Structure formats: structure tokens, C-alpha cells
Amino acid sequence: MWTREAKGEKVEEGIEWSNARPSKTHMALVELEKRGHVQWLVSQNVDGLHARSGFPLNRFAELHGNVFAIHCPSCKYREIQDNPVEFIGQKPIGRICGQINSRGSTCRRQLVDSVLDWEHDLPEPFFSDSWAQSEAADLSIVLGSSLQIQPANTLPTLSRKMVIINLSNTKMDRKAHLIIKSKCDFAIEILMQKLKIDIPEWTGPTIVKESSLKLEPLPIKEAKPKTTRRKRKTKSEQDPDYTSHSVPKAPKNEIPENEL
Ligand SMILES: [Zn+2]
């Protein structure tokens, strides 16, 4: 079991992950996808809550991994487990893949966890799919991210419009058409009330492999960054995107937290 220091105490992350419950935001996204309002979801969290909330696996990308997911580096077999992995960083979990390929032979590679370390590139096809979906989207909504980690932070800026819902400032605020400084659950509840859609209750871990709606294939353009290794922006670092960005500035409708 891997641990972290929290307020001077060692906390067993595995137990924390297992007990974590999807938020209202997670569950609202499940319902919005079912109704065709959400086409694609990108998550930078490794808590696995989107997968366990019942959001269809073929409709989202966990770009930095999922502590409940294991996969085979060779044949790309993927599995969501009931319990979190004991180690992270794409390390072997001590189980052979065992999938039978199209030629009838058994894959003998070791399955590994899916959580990235800093030296790992973002997983494919998830990053390419996210890029194509973001480029094709009319609107990307950023929920609870300060957009500091490259290249994932570029994705919402590719869409025609970007709305950011986050308590603090983000690295991409200048590119946003609307910024709502709020906790996600609070803003999403208001949105769902306006849409007159109930947020479903979470009844326990639910894995949904495919959406009931058809996902249209999208062309993948060749404008992706050369490296998809993660990088955190520093304050002193120039952001070339800021100067080359061509979307006209829309008036921002900033809503201070205390007015929500
Ligand atoms: Zn395999």
C-alpha cells in the first residue's frame, strides 16, 4: 500500500480511494452524457471516480491514469478493478495479461498500473481522442482545475468556446469566454436546476463500458504537441500560446465567489 504524509500522519491512500464517493458534479456529468449534452470528458484526476460513477469508459480519457485501472502495454487490454493498485508509476502488478490475440496466441506481458509518473508520455489513444474531441467541440467546460499541467491544459482552449469553473485563477483565464469562481458542485447544481434535470444518486461503484449513444468518429489533425510528457508551468515561463492566441476576447463575466 502506498502512503502519503498528511498533517503529520501517514494515510493509507488505498483505503482513501476505496471510500471516496463521486460528487454531485460527477453524477451530473453521468446524466448529461446520457442525454447527449456531454460528448467527451477529460480527467486529470487519478481517483477513478468518473469511471466508478458510471460515466461510459468509451466517452472519456483519464490522461494521468486511474488508481483502479490496470492495462497491458503490449495488447492494450484494460481493466477497472474493485480495489486500487498497491504501486503507481506503470509498475507490474504481478499478473500476466493472458489475453488471446487474433492469431490465437496468449499475451505473456505483465499487466501494469495506469498512473503516470512524470517521465511518462500521456496514454494513447486517449490523448489523440481528447485532442480531436476538443477541436470539434463547440464548448469545453473546465471543472475544478487550475490548468497548470501541460499538455492537458491546452485541450479546452482548442474548442470554439471555453468556460472555466474554478475557485482560483487558472493559467488559461485569458482564453476563457466565461469564468465562474465557484466550487464545482455549487455551480453544477445551479446549471442542473436551470436545465430542469435531476442529479442522480450514486448507488455504489458502477462501471459502464459503452455509452448508449453513438459516438461519431472524428478526424485527428496533426497539430498535436511533439511531446505529450507532462510539464508544470512555472511563473517565469513564457506562454507562447498567450501571444499567438487568435480568438477574440469576449467580455468576461466574472462572478466573485461570495456572490454565488
Ligand atoms: Zn496483453
UniProtKB/TrEMBL annotation:
Enzyme class: transferase
Keywords associated with the record: Metal-binding, NAD, Transferase, Zinc
Keyword S-adenosyl-L-methionine set for record: no
Active-site residues from the entry: 64
Annotated residues for binding of Zn(2+): 72, 75, 97, 107
EC number(s) stated in the UniProt entry for this protein: 2.3.1.286
Domain Deacetylase sirtuin-type: 1-198
InterPro entries hit by this protein: DHS-like_NAD/FAD-binding_dom (IPR029035), NAD-dep_sirtuin_deacylases (IPR050134), Sirtuin (IPR003000), Ssirtuin_cat_dom (IPR026590)
Biased composition annotated in UniProt, kind: Basic and acidic residues: 251-260
Gene3D superfamilies from the UniProt entry: 2.20.28.200, TPP-binding domain
PANTHER family attached to this UniProt entry: NAD-DEPENDENT PROTEIN DEACYLASE SIRTUIN-5, MITOCHONDRIAL-RELATED (PTHR11085), NAD-DEPENDENT PROTEIN DEACYLASE SIRTUIN-6 (PTHR11085:SF12)
Descriptive protein name: protein acetyllysine N-acetyltransferase
Taxonomic lineage of the native organism: Eukaryota, Metazoa, Chordata, Tunicata, Appendicularia
